[in-house]
Specification:
The strands form 3 sheets. A 7-stranded mixed beta sheet has the order 3-4-5-6-7-8-9, with helices on both faces. A 5-stranded mixed beta sheet has the order 11-10-12-14-13, sandwiched between helices. Strands 1-2 form a two-stranded antiparallel sheet. It folds into 2 domains: about 140 residues, Fructose-1,6-Bisphosphatase, subunit A, domain 1 (Fructose-1,6-Bisphosphatase, Chain A, domain 1, 2-Layer Sandwich), CATH 3.30.540; about 120 residues, D-Maltodextrin-Binding Protein, domain 2 (3-Layer(aba) Sandwich). The radius of gyration is 18 Å and the shape is globular. A hairpin with a 2-residue loop joins strand 8 and strand 9. Helix 4 packs across helix 7. It has about 260 residues and is an alpha+beta fold. Keywords: Hydrolase, Magnesium, Metal-binding. It holds the Pfam family Inositol_P. Belongs to the inositol monophosphatase superfamily. Its cofactor is Mg(2+). InterPro entries: Inositol_monoP_metal-BS, Inositol_monoP_superfamily, Inositol_monophosphatase-like.
């Protein structure tokens, strides 16, 4: 049985090392390649992931690893680390400081530890099952917003809301929310956990984008699921709803349900 407090200390130490590596290349000339899905990647993404993998294998040789840049390994293990070496590569290659390093530990497929590390801003959110989430070691909590009309909302890329259902979601956010802002990637969930925004709605994400933030949102008092209200796992479809309160989360699920009903009519 793993000691989760030890695992969190380990993830923090590894994040220190990975963050220093990323910053050595930040705002320096980089060669940018395009992957098969046309998302950008650099040698820095690959080097940081290689570092994370080597440290995990050294410390926890029996654990699985699911990362962005290399093939998954040992996913039948009871414990699996999910890692994103640089979440927000588009920000990283354009000199924008809101890129982060993400780590999660899954136990039986369920996130029990999560970490958002922002090397350029010096902020780190951590979440551990059964404990309050923290920002740089101090407890953080979500806001008490319960209604979309009062909500500050973030989504990273509005262009991803394609098709009638997803366009309807975006239209509802734009028309009904108090304020909607764009960009941010993983930073948005840190803002949510710290009570600075109230709702994060994303689509088209991968497990290494959303699993590391699950325990952080939960431990701060928020609710995070897919758009059907189901728990997030490696097999989820990449549609993510994170809300500051159960009431705001339920209201958004009602919006999704109504949009589905209208689409089916």
């Amino acid at each position: 049985m793993i000691n989760l407090s030890d695992a969190l200390r380990f993830s923090s130490e590894v994040a220190d090392e990975a963050g220093r590596m990323a910053l050595r290349y930040f705002r320096k000339p980089l060669t940018v390649e395009l992957k098969a899905d046309e998302s950008p990647v650099t040698a820095v993404d690959r080097e940081v992931e290689a570092l994370l993998r080597s440290r995990i294998i050294q410390a926890y040789p029996d654990h699985g690893i699911y990362g962005e840049e290399e093939a998954p390994m040992n996913l039948d293990s009871p414990y699996v680390w999910v890692i994103d070496p640089i979440d927000g590569t588009k920000s990283f290659i354009t000199g924008h400081p809101l890129f982060g390093g993400l780590m999660a530990l899954l136990q039986g497929g369920e996130p029990c530890l999560g970490q958002i590390d922002m090397p350029a801003t010096g902020e780190r959110w951590s979440g551990l099952r059964g404990e309050p989430s923290t920002l740089n070691g101090s407890p953080c909590t979500t806001s008490d917003c319960r209604d979309l009309s009062a909500a500050f909302v973030y989504t990273t890329d509005p262009f991803l809301f394609a098709g009638p259902k997803k366009h309807g979601v975006f239209k509802a956010l734009k028309e009904q929310a108090r304020l909607i802002r764009y960009g941010g990637d993983c930073y948005n969930y840190g803002m949510l956990a710290s009570g600075l925004c109230d709702l994060v709605v994303e689509t088209g994400l991968e497990p290494y984008d959303y699993l590391p933030v699950v325990q952080i949102v939960r431990g701060a008092g928020g609710v995070i699921t897919d758009w059907h209200g189901m728990p997030l796992g490696i097999g989820s479809n990449g549609d993510v709803l994170a809300a500051a309160t159960p009431e705001l989360h339920a209201q958004m699920l009602d919006h999704f349900h109504q949009l589905q009903a209208n689409e089916a009519a």
